[in-house]
From TrEMBL:
Keywords: Membrane, Plasmid, Transmembrane, Transmembrane helix
Name assigned to this protein: Uncharacterized protein
InterPro entries (alphabetical): FAD/NAD-bd_sf (IPR036188)
Membrane-traversing stretches: 50-76, 106-124, 136-155, 161-185, 205-224
Organism listed in the record: Thermus thermophilus (strain ATCC 27634 / DSM 579 / HB8)
Length: 252
């Protein structure tokens, strides 16, 4: 991490006006931006109204794959809150509309997809790191399959379901794993040793060649699966380099 450091400490209080964290050991840590990450299980921290507005409380369970994609995007530079709000409402109403066979539901899903594309464009345009890493590439490939699924939905529901499940969900989940797992393993094994001895860089934790091979096989198998049954075997074959990549992360 350039010009950064990892500090494991407990916070006693937050000085919002002074932009400082007051730590339990008495130290004071200034900050420019403060992110309160509540973990994989959301907590409202006792703040009234959070349950009505925060992602993870009020949204429908059917939005989990879409929300997962946005969560992956947020790892890079965050999301546009206004676009995110419109996206969630449109996707929610669209899913309910489709359940009752309403054409309006389909149009709302297309609107939600357009908002997701807009936010992906904004994130990529404003990113500080110019090179696209493996997690971002999987996320963008997943968005491509989501678009295919939405376009095919009125004409070929089976193809839409396969492209959504195998293409969108599969690629987004693998992309999230390639982004999150190396970070968790590195933090657990090397965070306390960083700066005191030589430790691997975060980008060195994942064998990207195996990850790209897995992503290519997943995308190839998902794309052809509606017409060629053997394509599912190509998709399943992608699990081998994928599992190898994750194994290499765990053993480093």
């Amino acid at each position: 991490m350039r010009r950064g450091r990892v500090l494991l400490a407990r916070t006693r209080a937050v000085d919002l006006e002074g932009r400082r964290l007051l730590l339990e050991d008495g130290d004071v840590l200034p900050y420019r931006h403060l992110v309160v990450a509540t973990g994989s299980l959301p907590s409202d921290l006792g703040v009234p109204g959070v349950g009505l507005l925060a992602l993870g409380f009020a949204q429908a369970p059917a939005l989990v794959p879409w929300g997962g994609a946005l969560a992956l995007a947020a790892l890079f530079h965050g999301v546009d809150e206004s676009a995110l709000g419109l996206f969630l409402w449109a996707a929610n109403l669209g899913l309910w509309g489709l359940a009752f066979g309403e054409g309006l539901g389909y149009l709302l899903l297309l609107l939600a997809y357009g908002l997701a594309l807009y936010d992906a464009y904004r994130i990529l345009k404003n990113r500080m790191k110019r090179a696209l890493d493996i997690g971002v590439r999987h996320y963008l490939a997943g968005l491509f399959f989501l678009g295919l699924a939405l376009l095919a939905l009125p004409f070929h529901p089976v193809a839409a379901a396969l492209w959504f499940a195998l293409g969108f969900v599969g690629l987004v989940v693998t992309g999230m794993l390639y982004k999150i797992l190396p970070f968790l393993v590195w933090t657990h094994r090397y965070a306390k040793r960083a700066g005191k001895e030589k430790v691997p860089l975060l980008k060195e934790m994942l064998p990207e060649g195996a990850g790209y091979l897995a992503g290519g096989l997943l995308a190839f198998g998902a794309l052809l699966s509606p017409w060629f049954p053997w394509a599912v075997w190509a998709y399943a074959l992608g699990a081998l380099p994928h599992l190898y990549a994750l194994w290499e992360v765990m053993r480093r």
